[in-house]
């Protein structure tokens, strides 16, 4: 099923994890994906990859430090998203939907636990 994709595509408080660093990084990811909807841009895709890699590393380190039980599932979801970015076809629909669904399902599981 999944959650509605916001229009305009931007972070709002319904995506709040209550961890400031993560929420700020999520805002950056929303913006990076939004910019890809405006034009197919190799530099923009590379910047999204960079921001995504940084965010995933930070989030995974927080999970490891707190011995979060859902780490393996979460890490696998991150790995799959990076794989899809590496084979980018220029259509931002997958990335938009993935981020929305990922935050509201997978990320919300760790609220209050990391």
Automatic annotation (TrEMBL):
TM annotation in the entry: none
Molecular function, one GO term:
iron ion binding
Keyword check for Iron: yes
Could you confirm whether the keyword Manganese appears in this record? no
Where does this protein hold Fe cation 2?
59, 74, 78, 102, 107
UniProt name for this protein: Hemerythrin
Source organism phylogeny: Eukaryota, Metazoa, Spiralia, Lophotrochozoa, Annelida
Q: Which organism is it from?
A: Myxicola infundibulum (Slime feather duster worm)
Which UniProt keywords are given for this protein, alphabetically ordered?
A: Iron, Metal-binding
Q: Where does Fe cation 1 bind?
A: 26, 55, 59, 107
Q: Where is the Hemerythrin-like domain?
A: 18-110
Q: Which NCBIfam families match?
A: hemeryth_dom, Hemerythrin
**From which domain of life does this come?**
Eukaryota
The family annotation for this protein states: Belongs to the hemerythrin family.
PANTHER family in the record, alphabetically? Answer: BACTERIOHEMERYTHRIN
């Amino acid at each position: 099923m999944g959650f509605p994709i916001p229009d305009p595509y931007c972070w709002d408080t319904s995506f709040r994890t209550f961890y400031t660093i993560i929420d700020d990084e999520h805002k950056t990811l929303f913006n990076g994906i939004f910019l890809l909807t405006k034009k197919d841009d190799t530099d923009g895709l590379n910047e999204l990859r960079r921001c995504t890699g940084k965010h995933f590393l930070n989030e995974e380190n927080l999970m490891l430090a707190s011995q979060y039980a859902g780490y393996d599932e979460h890490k696998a979801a991150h790995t799959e998203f990076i794989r899809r970015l590496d084979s980018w076809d220029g259509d931002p629909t997958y990335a938009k939907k993935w981020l929305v669904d990922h935050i509201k399902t997978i990320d919300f599981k760790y609220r209050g636990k990391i």
